[in-house]
Amino acid sequence: LGADDRKSRIATLRRGLIPALTQLKDYPGAVDQYIELINNYPEDEALTTEAALYVQKYQREKQLLDFYSKTIQQSPRDYRWSMALARMQSSLEDYPAAIDAYGKSIAIRPDRTDLHIARATLEERLLRFDDAASDCEHLYQLAYKDPKWMEKIAEVRTRQGRNADAVAALKTALIAVAPERAGNYFEVARRLEGWGILEPAKTFAEQGIGLAGDELLASQENHEAAKTFVRVMTRLRQQEKAYTTLQNAMNAASNSLPVLKEQVAKQGIAGVSDKEWREHVLATRKQNARSGMRTALTEMGATVSRYFTPEQKVTFAAFAETLRAPMSDADVREFAIPLAQAAGLAEQEATWRYGLVTKAPMDPANSGQLGAFEQLQRQRLKFSELAQQLENVVPRFPPQFRNAVVLDAAEAYRAAGDTDNEFRLLSSVGVNSLAGANQARWFALLLKRDPQKLAQIAGAWLPWGQAAADFALANGDAELANAVVAARSSSRPPVWGKSYTALVGLYFAESEPAINTAFVNALGDQTIAERVGKQVDRNIQLAGDIWFYYASRYGEYLADTRQGTPEGFLPAELEHSPASADRYLSLGDYYMDLGDTGKAIEQYKYTLELAPAPSCPVRLRAAPWRASVGKTAPTE
């Protein structure tokens, strides 16, 4: 076997011994195996970590650490053993000892960047910032002036509160070693702003503004830089100066001179005559500038929302009003409203949105303003104010759109608890234009305020009349239900009014004589002999199949109101369809509901005779009543 192959196989055998020795609780022997493995693979950081965790678990730290402490004494010029010891001590969280061990390794191998990185990390954790910064400076030189180490120094100095040193380190990392670019200055400003070092951040941001020049907003790649500038200036409460800079940048984007320079650079002096190309580039710059302005103002608002006190927000609101005053409607939509929204200036946002709606509600550019305004006012719980504002703006809409706004206003009044104005607006829309929840709400208000009008509306044989009738019967009392029947029967044959008066009486279990009279007049009280050979006027009296349905209901009415002899009418449906099991089942269920289990089971028996199928539901219904009637319920 070759030396490497032999070494690898022995390492595998040693690894296999560790679990076996652990099972035998021979922990010192297992640690010895780890020591032999580390001696053969001292650069394996994962192995040293594993060994450290093992000795920590089985309380064998002293055995492992003492071995390598002696090894360092015996081989003081071999950096590997102090490095391995340092890694073990790091895993065991003995950071001061680990730093000392790393120092011994670094003294032997100062070129090893990983040793400096490991020591600097531990020094920062122990708040030894000067030592950590010193290691980072060595790393900066070892890594051929990699700026990330100077950035790390800046971070360490910031934690120390040494802001000037942090600024100098960042400047060295991002500006001194690179060509002068606006983006580098803005990056320094962004880092410093993130650390709360605002005045130096402002200085670098302004230098970046100077380098960006007319391209600050005209070029999309500078928009993030503009946000950084605005954020820094706003946190310093210098938002007026920031806005002036943005305004100048947007005006500069409309300047044709940079376009000419670009055109000459790309196409030569002859290209200056290409008007179409020039106009396209200029339009693109303007569009980019407007997008950048919107982004920057939104960032300004977000900064105000996050960092300003309530008193400072009041001052900023006044500043926002001065910005909005000279703006066109397009600028208000694109700049002022996003600024107020991001800053949490709900009052200004609502006022500006409402102004747009009032001025030109049907302008396609304002299509979303009304909905956004309503949502904002509801979030602010300004329901009464919203309702009045919507009422005021209704005349500004074409007639075909007004009802929708009126209904929104009615809903706002309802949320405010103002039912009088809600009812007024719903009534103004008209019953033929109400539907769904608005219609049901108007019916509910009518039921409380003018139930007779509700009955009058229900009298119309139109869709809303049917809806009103259904609502009145479901929510009103017997008097209103009878009024609805009377209203609807005016345009129907007399038998319709008698029949539905009877059904309403059954529904409300009214015992008044008029209900009994309605049943009798609808069904007729002639004997069979009197009926034979005579044709019934179906406009006055029931006849045919429907007669049996109403006769059965009459029996239920007599039973419910304890009048007459219901047994004479309840079986009417059975007489109509004597071979139908469903009729017997329905009658059995009715008796069951009345608590007359004997008669119920009798009807269930007839049902089983006509429908003996095992799945017949009567078997389940009758079984629980066997004991209560003292005999076996039908099960076969």
Could you please describe the fold and organization of this structure?
The chain is mainly alpha-helical and 636 residues long. Among the domains are: 79 residues, Serine Threonine Protein Phosphatase 5, Tetratricopeptide repeat (Alpha Horseshoe); 126 residues; 61 residues, no CATH class; 85 residues, no CATH class; 56 residues, Serine Threonine Protein Phosphatase 5, Tetratricopeptide repeat, CATH 1.25.40.10. It contains 37 helices and no strands. It is flat and about 135 Å long. The C terminus is likely disordered.
Summarize the structure.
By secondary structure, this protein is mostly helical. It contains 37 helices and no strands.
Number of helices: 37
Strand content: under 5%
Share of residues in helices: over 70%
Low-confidence stretches: 625-636
What's the count of strands? 0
- N/C terminus separation: 91 Å
Q: What is the mean pLDDT?
A: 90
Question: Strand pairing plus helix content: what structural class?
Answer: mainly alpha
Envelope shape: flat
Rg, rounded, reads 46 Å
Main pleated sheet: none
